[in-house]
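Help needed: design a sequence for this.
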C-alpha cells in the first residue's frame, strides 16, 4: 500500500522536524496532553452519545405507545361500527323473517280453505251424481217392468 507508506514517511519527517525545534521533554509532555485531550474528548463523546441514545430510546418508546393507543382507538371504533351494522342487519332480518312467517301462515290458511272448498264441492257433486244415477236406474227399472 503506497498510501500508508507515504503517510508513515511524512509522519516520521514531521516528527524529526518537531524534535529539532522542540526539546524532547516538551514533546513528550505535548504528546501526553494530546493523548489526554483525545481521551477526554472520546469519553465526552461517548457520554453524549449514550445520553442522546437514551433520549432517543425514550422518545421511540413514547411514540410507539402513542401509535398503539391511536391504533387501539381506531380499531375499537371500527369494531363498534361493524357491530352496529351487524345489529341493524339482524333487526332487518328479523323483520323480514316475521313478514315471511306471517305470509306463510296466511298462505297455509288460504290453502286449507281452498282445499276444504274443493273437497266440499266434490262431495256435493258426487252426492248429486249418485242420486241422479240411482234415480235413473230406478226409473229404468220401473219402466222396464
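Sure. Designed sequence:
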Amino acid at each position: 500500500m503506497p498510501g500508508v507508506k507515504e503517510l508513515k514517511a511524512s509522519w516520521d519527517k514531521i516528527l524529526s522536524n518537531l524534535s529539532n525545534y522542540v526539546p524532547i521533554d516538551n514533546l513528550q509532555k505535548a504528546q501526553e496532553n494530546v493523548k489526554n485531550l483525545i481521551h477526554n474528548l472520546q469519553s465526552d463523546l461517548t457520554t453524549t452519545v449514550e445520553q442522546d441514545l437514551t433520549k432517543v430510546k425514550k422518545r421511540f418508546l413514547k411514540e410507539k405507545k402513542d401509535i398503539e393507543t391511536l391504533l387501539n382507538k381506531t380499531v375499537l371504533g371500527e369494531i363498534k361500527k361493524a357491530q352496529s351494522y351487524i345489529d341493524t342487519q339482524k333487526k332487518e332480518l328479523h323483520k323480514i323473517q316475521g313478514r315471511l312467517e306471517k305470509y306463510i301462515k296466511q298462505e297455509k290458511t288460504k290453502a286449507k280453505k281452498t282445499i276444504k272448498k274443493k273437497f266440499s264441492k266434490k262431495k256435493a257433486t258426487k252426492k248429486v251424481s249418485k242420486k241422479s244415477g240411482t234415480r235413473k236406474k230406478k226409473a229404468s227399472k220401473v219402466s222396464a217392468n
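The chain has two helices and no strands.
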